[in-house]
Amino acid sequence: MSIVKAFARLVGGTRLVRLEGPSRATGCTILGKCEYENPGGSVKDRAGLWMVRAALESGELREGSPGVIVEGTAGNTGIGLALAGGCYGLKSVIVLASSQSQEKKRHSASS
To answer: Are 95 and 73 a contacting pair, CB within 8 Å?
Structure first.
């Protein structure tokens, strides 16, 4: 088992799986990317990391600064932003609708 030093290095490094039915039907190799293997469990981890890195590169945020990421979300984007922001010492405020699932509320609170 490998040990990775940062969340950011885990994002996107998910496995590919051959999708047999579509591959047979098309005569091509069709692969699916297992995005659920990202640290936040979603393809939105990529988006969150990209947005945080873009804000750091543009100077809108500074690593470890008192800046705060605020996101109104249905869940997955906010989780990705909170995880990515945490890698750079940034605080996050994620606003979820009261109708959101308890699982997503717990996951967001722990990010």
So the answer is: yes
What does pTM read for this prediction? 0.73
Q: What is the pLDDT of residue 9?
A: 86
Beta bridge partners of 73: 96
Task: Take residue 41 and report the two structure tokens written for it.
Answer: 């469990």
Amino acid (1-letter code) at residue 94: I
**Could you state, in order of their start, the residue ranges of all structural domains in the chain?**
7-110
Residue of 58 and 96 predicted with greater confidence: 58
Active site residues: 44
CB 101 within 8 A of CB 77: no
Strand locations in 22-90, DSSP E?
Answer: 31-33, 68-73
The hierarchical CATH code for the domain 7-110 is 3.40.50.1100
